[in-house]
Design brief:
This protein is mainly alpha-helical. The chain is 67% helix and 3% strand. The protein contains twelve helices and four strands. The chain has helices at residues 3-18, 53-73, 85-97, 110-150, 158-167, 169-194, 200-211, 224-266, 271-277, 287-298, 303-316, 326-334; strands at 33-34, 37-38, 78-80, 105-107. The two termini are 41 Å apart.
Length: 335
């Protein structure tokens, strides 16, 4: 065969591997434009990856509403420092839901104790399954602004921003949650100093014991204005701390994965590697076999995954030609 023709054929195969349409990465596609205006992406991180705010707000409102009503009805069976009847019931619901448990308001009968037990478990489920997703949604919505701010001196367009977010997604989530956490700590401390009349150390101590759900109880929100603030601040603060440690763990895991990928890519290939990568035992390693071997080394896929894919391929390859065609798919679906 003519060397130039052989080279062209290899280039064509390479392009087909790189530009495979079987699993398109739509998240990395730049947004379409209409004149100078950007059309929002429907399949990217700017889309609805998590439950909408309406759904989250509805679930939260139902839980808080039912809890506040229940504890309002048994308000005389709750002892402690009280301000306003309905506000105290709402405040007690939030403190119970987030497991802060100051101890400034406590159940004083078997009924209220059983109610508190029920609401603390259901509250943890609400926080874990719904509100954390809402926090993810909020963070992802702000990632583009953070990327743009960090690269404001560079010419970063929409496609570059999307690519940067996809490459360092966990890092930007961690930075955003860290920033939000610092803001919440600062706001909470200032509020406790100015409204609850605590000194700076006690205010900071109360903030830290609250957002970590430690809730010693020696310092808490005792005024009516303070409890109005606490209803919102405690909810946001406790969720933010949980997200902060979650993203910290994800960032550490992602860093280790990148180190492993770098080691795999930089490691020199030996004849033993070629033997292991030769899936069909024909003495040669094609581009697809090489890619699969590297992915296995990185831990992206396992031998079990490959076996399942090959099994599906064999089921679809009705004529047993070793390749898939439209007729194979048609026959496989009709059988």
């Amino acid at each position: 065969m003519d060397p130039s023709a052989q080279k062209a054929r290899l280039q064509l195969k390479k392009r087909r591997l790189i530009r495979s349409r079987s699993a398109p990465q739509t998240d990395l596609d730049p947004p379409e434009t209409n004149g100078n205006k950007l059309i929002p992406l429907s399949g990217s991180i700017f889309g609805s990856l998590h439950p909408s705010f309406r759904k989250v707000a509805l679930c939260l409102a139902v839980y808080v509403g039912v809890g506040a009503l229940a504890f309002y009805l048994v308000r005389n069976q709750i002892k402690g420092l009280k301000t306003n009847r309905f506000l105290d019931a709402l405040y007690f619901t939030i403190v119970t839901m987030t497991t802060v448990g100051y101890g400034d308001l406590v159940p004083n009968s078997n009924l209220t104790k059983l109610l508190a037990c029920a609401f603390v478990f259901s509250g943890m489920a609400v926080v874990g399954l719904i509100l954390s997703k809402a926090a993810d949604y909020l963070v992802e919505k702000q990632e583009a602004l953070l990327v743009k701010a960090m690269h404001m001196r560079e010419n970063f367009g929409p496609s570059e921003i999307l690519k940067e977010i996809e490459t360092n997604k966990t890092r930007y989530k961690f930075l955003l949650v860290l920033l939000l956490l610092l803001v919440l700590i600062t706001v909470g401390t200032i509020f406790l100093v100015s409204v609850e009349k605590l000194d700076f150390v006690d205010a900071f101590y109360c903030v830290c014991s609250t957002i970590t759900t430690l809730g010693y109880g020696d310092k808490s929100f005792s005024t009516q204005a303070g409890r109005v603030f606490a209803v919102i601040w405690i909810l946001i603060g406790t969720i933010t701390v949980a997200q902060f440690f979650l993203y910290m763990a994800e960032l550490n895991t992602e860093s280790r994965q990148k180190e492993l990928a770098k080691w795999v890519l930089e490691r020199k290939i030996t004849h033993l590697d070629l033997e292991a990568a030769d899936l069909d035992d024909d003495g040669t390693v094609g581009a697809a076999e090489f890619v699969i071997y590297k992915l296995k080394e990185m831990g992206k896929i396992s031998q079990e995954d490959i076996s399942l894919f090959l099994k599906e391929f064999e089921e679809l390859d009705v004529d047993q030609s070793g390749t898939l065609s439209v007729s194979d798919i048609t026959l496989a679906q009709s059988s």
